[in-house]
Predict the structure.
Amino acid sequence: MRRIIIKGLPGFIVVILFLLSLGAQSGETNWKEMETRLSRATGEEKFNLLVKLTGYYSQNDPKKALSYGGKVLELLKDFPGFPGTIEHVGLLNALSLANASAGSNEEAQKYARQARGLAKKINDRKGYAKAVYNLGRIYQFKSSYEQAFTYLEEALEIFKEVENWREIGNVFNMKGMIYARINDYSNALENFLESARAYEKSENKNRCLAVYNNIGVIYEETNDYENALRFFNKAREIAGEVDHKRAMSITIHNIANIYRIQGEYSEALEYADESIKIAKAIGDKRKMAFDISFIGEINRDMNRPRQAMENFSRALELAKQVNERELMSKIFWLKGALKGELGEYTEAVSLLKQALKLAAEIEALNEERDAARELYKVYAAVQNTAKALEYHIKYKQLDDKILNKEKNEKMTVLQVRFDFERKNKEIELLKKDQKIRDLQLRRHKNLIYSFIIISLLIMIAAGVIFNRYRFKARINRKLSEEIENHKNTACKLRESEEKFRTMAEKTLVGIYIIRDNLFEYVNPRFLEIFGYTSDEFTGRSPLEMVLEENRPLVAENIRQRLEGEINTINYQFRGITKQGDTIFLESFGSRFVYQGKPAVIGTLIDITDRRETEEELRRSQKLEAVGILAGGIAHDFNNLLSIIIGSNSILKETIDSRGNEQIQRNLDSLEKASWQAADLANKLVNLTRRQWMIPEKISLWDILKRIVNRHPEVQPLMKDVSIPPDLKPVYGDERQLADVVFNLLKNAGEATTEHGQVSIRSENTIINGRKADIYGIEIGEYVKVSIIDNGKGIPSDQLESIFNPYFSTKETYSEKGLGLGLPICYSIIKRHGGYISIQSHKGKGTTVEFYVPVFK
């Protein structure tokens, strides 16, 4: 009861068909309505309803399907237009399936052959494939696996042509059942997984549920409990989605059994209780009996005899109600064994004898043997030597009988598997060398003619022996050649792998392999880009190396390649090094199969230098263009403002003598606005490199101290000031550099909240060749100034525009400036031969850094 796959082919097929028919329940109401209509229908409507109901019930209720199908066959003569149609092919296939489900293989085969012939005649490819599939299914029932595989492969080829994923899933599922029957679990698992993928593409959740359970049991049989639980849980999830309580109960029982096998009894009890609740809700007493007995066995394993005995008693009552005699026999011996362990020998003997008698009646050898063994133990415990010996002999006889039966079954399965594999190898060899076969046939024919002349009987026998010897010799030679070819291929593969590894270790680009969303391999250059060692990188997820904002992009690109939606892709993203630095990366990757699983292989290039150089060049060109334009108009603009300011002064003197105060205030406002316009013109001039400056040896230490200590707009903001006295002197214009520091501090203060903090730090530093190329400055000594705030930060999509003229991040019109502060700072620092940059994260604050060359 705990397994979806039951040992023995008939049980295996019955349960599979049960689960594959679950999908019909969602449309049960419609079919009930059709049956109601059938009772009132006549003529063509009745005929069409009978055809549809036959097809529907062919899997779910074979008896009903055969009843409806028989009525259709009786009415065929009244509908001459029906024979020879696609619907007729569907009816024949439905009758074949119904007969097979009812156990009438000969009738099923007859209808399948009729369907195949008619489908071929009218060129119905889908109907033909379905008929061929039914034939393969029938031969599988008859254990004729070679013929079954021949038909199934033919059906699979056609279903793939028409992309019928549901039927493709059915074929792979049937192949998986055959391999499971001959204990070839590797091939069984491979075909069940293919079946699951096909059902997923057809969005058939009910069939996925059945196959997931089958896969879980295959993993359980091979002791891979982790994967068994994974697929049982997937089946449980789908059972919940389609709201099928019985399937849910069976799946949860499977999960409980996995936990019991691993000794995790509390989890096993939890899942078993859940299974009982579901079985009780649907009124399935048989399932409840099995589940309660299972809980009793868990309690017995946990050395809790009282609880176990209570469970066995409850399960026995339910088993009696549904007349589940095999379970009753098992419970009798479980209770008897437990009573024997507790020393209650009289009750133990009574229960075990009931178990022995019931097991013998239903020919349940395992339960009969177990009961005899427990009786032997009980009688031995009470020192009844005669009875102990009697039941010990009986136990050994039953055990030998079971062992012989299992041995015969295993030998039969092994023989079938051996014959099956041997036949496949022989067919493969014969197909590879058709010329040898033709030559042997010709020689055989010539030998027959020669032997007839001398002595027909003697020469025929000699010819047969001779040909068999030669045939085996050729097969042996072919096998030797195949082995040698395999060795050569393996050698070439090793050489190829060695070449790839050598190339990967020496290349200047990063190379990676991703499988199951983890890095399987990275080369030294890849490690160098991120600053890790090979030991630190083992088992890491690719997303750990990606900036949080770019993780959805990278995750989606990896998923699309692993799932086969795209084969190759090229894109750029931002990564994070071990030291926490942000770098720009370009990746090119392709999908391939690595050690039997889908994987991604690709290259990674660090393009941080290129991106920053391009950005610096673009920013300089833009500012230069704006500066040239501003410088061209600033002179004329100032001349016009001089006339306005001068005329306004004359008017003020004249009006002031007459005492008109209102006009005087208006003229004051005009003068103030004119001076503001003149200041704007000066700011525009600051954008051009042609602005006049007075370079000299100056101390940034003095400038920073003066601004921090003397400017009231800045001083209240400062929480962390680090201005070492050993700052080296720089070469530049003191007034302009002071404007830069003041402007940046003012911006930092405006970006902070009520309790915000602004820090200023400075240090001597050296710019090396790599940074110099990126920043576009000379190699040498510099003074670095950093202004840090913990304010609202700047969104990443605005950072690239932050140095553009007239661009402002302030949200309201009243707060917005002219958008010239940072561009002017940028222009001044560049004019001094330095570099300025901004790093910011929304909600985390902003850091502005600028470098000024040391005085030489």
Q: What stands out?
A: Residues 1-29, 812-816 have pLDDT under 50 and may be disordered.
